[in-house]
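hey so i finally got around to running the thing on that chain from the lab meeting. sorry it took forever, my laptop kept dying and i had to restart like 3 times. anyway pasting the input first so we r on the same page abt which one it is
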Amino acid sequence: MSKQQLPIRIVSKVVRGYGRGSKDLGIPTANVSRDDTVLSCSCGSFDTLPTGIYWGYGKIIGDINDGDDGKMINGDDDEGHNSKISRGEVYTAAISIGYNPTYNNKEKTVEPHLIAEASHPQRHASSSGETLFGDFYDKTIVLSVVGYLRPELPFEGLEKLTQAIKKDIEDACRLSKEDNLTNNEEREWVKLHQN
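ok and heres what got predicted. didnt touch it at all, straight out
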């Protein structure tokens, strides 16, 4: 991965994926639409995005009627639990871009896992102890891909894949807290971006 390509800025819609992040791994992701009519990407088309595991920042933008208090977006997870994500709040993200070699996908996907702060009630709510916000399909996602963590790798079994993703999440949290110009600029870009 060339550092000259980073950061990558993406604005798109959240769409349904395979459901494996939540169901198989306990690490839900917000699947980014590859539809050119809703996708804006600083590096061109979806297919030119470099594959790998990355970290960055993201937020969800909802319609004004989505939250009963005007600030929260409701979401229901697969078990029917209601959870909320703060509209416009910037979250650290661990981001997979590629073909998920453990599953042999044929189509490239962009799948960020938004990570709540340690004190947030949803921070350790998933079955694997990671952030669980629920679904926000058809909402706008603003994403800045700031840094490269590792290549996509096939894993022998879901347990090893889950362990690797949990390490990616730890690394993303650590790197996103560094006080440097790129982090500050990208966090601010995500924060200020309006759809």
